[in-house]
């Protein structure tokens, strides 16, 4: 089990390492060019999402907010129950001395 | 903590003689079997030859060459450098060492051993790599300096990590995993540095200087922390 | 209820408030549009990851310096902080890649901050691997703390190295000039509230874990006394 963990992790590290090493050795110039290309691409994309908040986008916004709120309430419920249980255990410990 | 024999009574002389005694013992034990060195060197040779073979003799660009060089050095080092402490735990001599010799002298002698080990490894790997992968080294002195500085930094950073791994039972690739974040800046700078040596433009001496400064810094920190890794309650 | 408890439990109110502020009150950013609202979650998550990492490191140093054992539970708290930090770091990476996909068109491009968060992630992974391998060892705490200290002192070197090698696409202070998005008062307030509530969430979970660790220890003592 543990060995498998370590193997998976080392594979992940190798995957992560390759591009880091690669970009380390390429020149700053290359990286700049990459960034510049990226920005150029972005500039092309920029005019596309014209920011006019239509009714449609605000519906999406409310939906996303609903999902986030549900996630938070789930987490909050879990934390709250955990807190109560720990408090109960603490009380028990205190009573036993 | 185990009361280690104090070296302050004998002063610096005592520490020095302890270190020399440890080193002599370590080298004798290591070169009796040459276990770690054989494995590390054969690994490096196999990987280098495999890369050269599969590339079919086509020369790589300078950046790729230095990435491959440091990948080979990194993994060969990971095969051998933890051996110095893992062996002590395996052969159950760690306890004896802990009681009989001061902690400081153990750390100093083990890191000197690792430095020597790393240098031997580099002396074997680098010419082999240059020979098989048709590396065209333009600034030879700078190339040697970068490789040596990188090696010193790797050996300096991993000595204390080897002691930690030995405590954890020397399990497989754990050493590689825990060394990776610490060695990442070293590899990064070393790759840049050797790439500079393979290019026409005059290389900048920032990188080797950074590597040497880093190895000094990490050696000092390791020296301070070694006591809490090595001694047991 | 003590002031500490009230402060920690106020996260139950502050967090929904943050969500409402982020989605309803704060105006959308000029160019990024509504997608910029992920900022109110991404930035606090990143802040807490770094905070947890620093707390973990400081507690490790304190534990190693505290030879006489005057303080209890330093290693355990350090480890717990690292666990929380690890989760927050993963969440930071996820929210960050989503935002990067929306605004830069790619999920990942080794931007300096992305690189540094990945290095923090690798350090966490290595630390947990070491802790796992040391299970049952009496010196686990000391070895783990030493490793964390060594890994942490390499981070300033990255801070020195990374910007020299990569140009940043990340907004410089928070949103950069050439993107012509500046935080107006409402956005800034929302962001600060979000940072506060995420920090409180971190503190709340950390204290909860601390209480559980204390309970565990006391149960252990109880059994040892039998």
Range of strand content of chain A: under 5%
Which percent range fits the helix content of chain A? over 70%
* Number of beta strands of chain A: 0
**Greatest contact pair?**
A-C, 45 and 41 residues
> Structural class from helices and strands of chain A?
mainly alpha
- Average pLDDT of chain A works out at 62
Separate helix tally of chain A: 3
Please compute the radius of gyration of chain C using only Cα atoms: 20 Å
Number of helices of chain C: 8
- What is the N-to-C order of secondary-structure elements of chain A (H for helix, E for strand)? HHH
Helix fraction bin of chain C: over 70%
N to C succession of SSEs of chain C: HHHHHHHH
User: Cα distance, first to last residue of chain A?
Assistant: 39 Å
Task: Describe the overall structure.
Helices cover 87% and strands 0% of the residues of chain A. Chain A is mostly helical. Chain A folds into two domains: 1-50, no CATH class; 52-97. Chain B is mainly α. In chain B, 79% of the residues lie in helices and 0% in strands. Chain B has nine helices and no strands. Chain C has helices at residues 3-9, 11-25, 39-65, 74-103, 112-133, 140-153, 155-165, 185-225. Chains in contact: A-B, A-C, B-C. At the A-C interface, helix 1, helix 2 and helix 3 of A face helix 2, helix 5 and helix 8 of C.
């Amino acid at each position: 089990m543990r060995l498998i963990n370590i193997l998976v992790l080392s594979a992940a590290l190798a995957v992560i390492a390759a591009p880091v090493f690669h970009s380390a050795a390429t020149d700053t110039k290359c990286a700049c060019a990459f960034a510049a290309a990226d920005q150029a691409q972005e500039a092309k994309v920029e005019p596309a999402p014209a920011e006019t908040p239509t009714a449609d986008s605000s519906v999406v916004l409310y939906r996303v907010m609903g999902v986030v709120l549900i996630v938070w309430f789930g987490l909050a419920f879990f934390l709250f129950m955990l807190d109560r249980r720990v408090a109960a255990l603490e009380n028990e410990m205190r009573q036993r001395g | 903590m185990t009361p280690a024999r104090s070296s302050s009574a004998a002063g610096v002389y005592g520490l020095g003689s302890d270190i020399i005694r440890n080193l002599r013992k370590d080298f004798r034990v290591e070169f009796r079997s040459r276990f770690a060195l054989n494995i590390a060197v054969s690994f490096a040779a196999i990987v280098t030859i495999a890369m050269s073979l599969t590339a079919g003799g086509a020369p790589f660009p300078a950046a790729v060459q230095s990435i491959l060089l440091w990948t080979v050095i990194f993994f060969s080092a990971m095969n051998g450098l933890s051996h110095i402490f893992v062996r002590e735990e395996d052969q159950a001599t760690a306890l004896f060492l802990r009681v009989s010799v001061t902690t400081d002298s153990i750390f100093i002698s083990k890191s000197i051993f690792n430095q020597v080990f790393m240098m031997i490894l580099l002396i074997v790997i680098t010419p082999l790599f240059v020979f098989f992968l048709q590396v065209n080294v333009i600034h030879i002195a700078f190339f040697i300096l970068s490789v040596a500085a990188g090696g010193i930094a790797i050996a300096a950073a991993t000595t204390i990590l080897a002691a930690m791994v030995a405590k954890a039972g020397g399990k497989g690739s754990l050493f590689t995993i825990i060394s990776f974040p610490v060695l990442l800046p070293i590899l990064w700078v070393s790759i840049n540095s050797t790439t500079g040596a393979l290019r026409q433009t005059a290389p900048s001496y920032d990188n080797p200087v950074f590597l040497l400064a880093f190895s000094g810094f990490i050696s000092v920190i390791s020296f301070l922390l070694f006591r809490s890794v090595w001694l047991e309650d | 209820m003590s002031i500490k408890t009230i402060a920690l439990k106020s996260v139950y109110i502050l967090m929904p408030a943050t969500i409402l502020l982020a989605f309803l009150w704060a105006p959308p950013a000029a160019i990024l549009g509504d997608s910029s609202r992920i900022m109110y979650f991404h930035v606090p998550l990143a802040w807490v990851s770094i905070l947890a990492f620093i707390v973990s490191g400081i507690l490790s140093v304190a534990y190693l310096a505290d030879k006489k054992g005057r303080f209890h539970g330093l290693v355990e708290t350090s480890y717990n902080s690292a666990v929380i930090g690890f989760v927050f770091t993963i969440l930071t990476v996820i929210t960050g890649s989503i935002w990067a996909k929306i605004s830069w068109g790619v999920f990942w491009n080794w931007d300096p901050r992305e690189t540094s968060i990945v290095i923090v992630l690798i350090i966490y992974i290595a630390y947990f691997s070491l802790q796992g391998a040391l299970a049952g060892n009496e010196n686990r705490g000391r070895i783990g703390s030493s490793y964390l200290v060594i890994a942490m002192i390499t981070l300033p070197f990255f801070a020195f190295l990374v910007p020299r090698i990569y140009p940043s696409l990340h907004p410089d202070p928070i949103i950069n000039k050439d993107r012509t998005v500046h935080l107006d008062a409402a956005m800034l307030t929302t962001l600060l509230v979000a940072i506060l509530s995420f920090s409180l969430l971190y503190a709340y979970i950390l204290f909860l874990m601390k209480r559980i660790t204390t309970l565990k220890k006391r149960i252990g003592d109880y059994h040892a006394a039998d």
